[in-house]
Design brief:
Length: about 325
C-alpha cells in the first residue's frame, strides 16, 4: 500500500499471465501490487496441457506455468484478492490546490481510482492495470446454455475424459480446435472437426497431425445450426454453406472452439473499446484514462500469445509505477 494511506499502489484486475507478470514487475519496482481475480489464478492458460512455445521453457503444462507465476509474484510480496471487479471509477478527490491562484482550484480528480467488487466492497488504487483476458465465444444457438455440461463444452482438456470411446465433434478452425481434436482423438471413438471454411487458421503442423489420425473426419464449409438431444447432447445438425443442405451427425459431445471475446464490459465507461470490443491501446499499454493501463488478451493487438501477455504485463507495470511516481 502507499505510505500515504491504505491506497493500493497498483491494482491489477485479473491474475492470468498478463496480470501476474505485471505484479512481478510492480513488486520489483518497489511498489505494492494487488491482483483481483474472480476465478482461479492463471487465467485461460491453466487448462492448456502443454506449453512448448514460451522462450526459455522447453515444455511445461499450463497449470505448472500458472503456479510458477503465482508463486513468483506472491513471494515478491504481491497480493491476490479473490473478488470479481464490477467497475473502476475515478475518485472525486475535491482537494483544494492552494499552489494555484487562478480558477483551476482543484487537483485533477483522477488521482485515485475506486475498484468496486461484486460482493459490494470498494478498494482504492493509485493506478490500475486491466488484465482481464478473454472468454470463450459461444455459438449463440438455442439450447447451448442448457446443454453446457451435458455434452456441450468449451474445454476439451477439462471435459474430454468424460467422452472416452464416444463420438464427438469439435467446432472451429483455429489452433485450439485442432489441438482439441488431436487431444480427443487419443481416446474418443470418432472426432469430427466442423469448420465454416476449408482453410484453417491453425498452424499447418497441427492440421497435418489431425489429418494423420484415422478417427478424425473433417466436415468443412459447414456450420452447426442445431443441438439435439433430450437430457444430454445426442446429435448436431450441420448446414453445408455451399449447398444449403442440412444433416445430423450423431455425437455425444460438442467442443466449441471458435475463439475468444474480451472480458471487459465492466470497464467500457472508463476506457475506449475498438470495433471488436478490445480495449484500445498501443504497445505502450496506455489507455485514454490517465492512470489506467491495459495488458494481455483484452488489449487491441494482432498476436494474442502467452509471450505477448507477459510482455504487456511488464510494459503496463513499469508505466503504472512511473505514473504513481509522478502523481
Ligand atoms: P482463433 O484462432 O480465433 O480461431 C477461431 C476459429 O473459430 C476460426 O477458425 C474461425 O473461423 C472460427 N469461428 C469464429 N467464430 C465462429 C462462429 N461464430 N461460428 C463458427 N466458427 C467460428 O481462436 P483459437 O483457436 O481459440 O486461438 C486463439 C489464439 O490462441 C490464436 O492466436 C491461436 O494461435 C492461439 N493458440 C495457440 C496455441 C499454441 O500455440 N499451442 C494453442 C491454442 C491457441 P474463420 O477461420 O473462418 O474465421
Amino acid at each position: 500500500m502507499s505510505e500515504l494511506s491504505n491506497i493500493i499502489d497498483v491494482a491489477i484486475i485479473g491474475a492470468g499471465p498478463a496480470g501476474l507478470s505485471a505484479a512481478i514487475y510492480v513488486q520489483r519496482a518497489g511498489k505494492h501490487a494487488v491482483c483481483f481475480e474472480a476465478l482461479t489464478v492463471g487465467g485461460q492458460i491453466v487448462n492448456t496441457p502443454e506449453i512448448a512455445n514460451y522462450p526459455g521453457i522447453k515444455k511445461t503444462s499450463g497449470f505448472e506455468f500458472s503456479m510458477g507465476l503465482y508463486e513468483q509474484a506472491t513471494e515478491l510480496g504481491a497480493e491476490v484478492i479473490y473478488e470479481k471487479v464490477t467497475g473502476v471509477s475515478k475518485v472525486e478527490s475535491g482537494l483544494e490546490d492552494t499552489s494555484k491562484d487562478d480558477s483551476e482550484d482543484t487537483l485533477p480528480d483522477e488521482k485515485y481510482f475506486n475498484i468496486i467488487t461484486e460482493s459490494g466492497k470498494t478498494f482504492q488504487a493509485q493506478a490500475v492495470i486491466l488484465a482481464t483476458g478473454a472468454k470463450n465465444r459461444h455459438l449463440g444457438l438455442p439450447r447451448e446454455e442448457e446443454l453446457t455440461g451435458r455434452g456441450v463444452s468449451y474445454c476439451a482438456t477439462c471435459d474430454g475424459a468424460f467422452f472416452r470411446k464416444k463420438d464427438v465433434a469439435v467446432n472451429g478452425g483455429g489452433n485450439t480446435a485442432l489441438e482439441d481434436a488431436l487431444f480427443l482423438s487419443n481416446y474418443c471413438n470418432k472426432v469430427y472437426i466442423i469448420h465454416r471454411r476449408d482453410e484453417f487458421r491453425g498452424e499447418p503442423k497441427n492440421l497435418e497431425a489431425v489429418k494423420s489420425r484415422e478417427n478424425v473426419e473433417l466436415v468443412l464449409k459447414s456450420t452447426v445450426t442445431e443441438l439435439k438431444g433430450d437430457k444430454s447432447l445426442e446429435a448436431v445438425t450441420v448446414k453445408d454453406k455451399i449447398t444449403g443442405e442440412e444433416k445430423d451427425i450423431a455425437v455425444q459431445g460438442l467442443f466449441i472452439a471458435i475463439g475468444q471475446e474480451p472480458n471487459n464490459q465492466s470497464f467500457r465507461d472508463i476506457v475506449d473499446l475498438d470495433g471488436a470490443g478490445y480495449i484500445s491501446a498501443d504497445e505502450s499499454c496506455i489507455t485514454k484514462t490517465s492512470g489506467i493501463f491495459v495488458a494481455g488478451d483484452t488489449r487491441t493487438k494482432t498476436v494474442r500469445q502467452l509471450t505477448t501477455a507477459a510482455s504487456d504485463g511488464a510494459v503496463a507495470a513499469l508505466a503504472a509505477c512511473e505514473f504513481t511516481d509522478r502523481n
